[in-house]
Amino acid sequence: MDNKNQIIPTAEPFYFPGNSTGCLLIHGFTGTPKEMRRLGVSLAQQGYSVLGIRLAGHATRIEDMRRTHWWDWVASVEDGYRLLEPNTNRIVVIGLSMGGILSLYTAARFKVDGAIALSTPYNLPKDWRFPYIKIIGLVKKEISKGPSDWHDPQVAKNHVAYNNYPTQCIPDLALLMGETHKILPDIQCPVLLMQSKADKSIIPESMQSYFDMLGTKDKNMFWLENSGHIITNEPESNIVFESCSNFIRRVTGG
I need a surface site. Which of 55, 64, 106, 131 has the fewest CB within 10 A? Predict the structure, then answer.
């Protein structure tokens, strides 16, 4: 990494000024704003004001993430919301993976016109290590992510994220899920949920579990067939972008 840069090159946060509808884009656990950038460019080309935030501890060094907790990631999203709020009349939050959890958490706590949760885990995936993660964390600072589920190898080569999971952050991810579960019935804005049937990173029942717990009556599920976990950069990304655009137009009136 260039000594001048703390943030990994190509993984910087981004802002595209536009009209009075703001789109707040939130990346995932150990990920970077880059995984949301193509979606952000697509929305900006339609005239929306788009802010892709960088969550605390992400896109720099994994050592930085080790020092963060779930409330730091929540605060990063609130920062983005507060930046968009005075410059827009409507806000839609859009998150991928843990970013999807954060988008729903935000929708329950702040005034938003809609929320989109992409590839969003409802519980930790089935991994024998996770029930013992606090003990493992005493001796291992990082654990491997396991096999990739990318469907586009070329895109996978350009993906930017930490190579491993910071062990001590996994309990915080679980805590964030639990805190979000508690307030899902409070969400009254429209919600769009999207997940791929080929996603190997989260349990298949995740999207249905969120759908069942949401308080809003305006909620929809959309299944993809041929994508891995990072659906914003996979072969069906154009379907994702179009679905997001249609949802935003419907809930904001423009």
Answer: 131
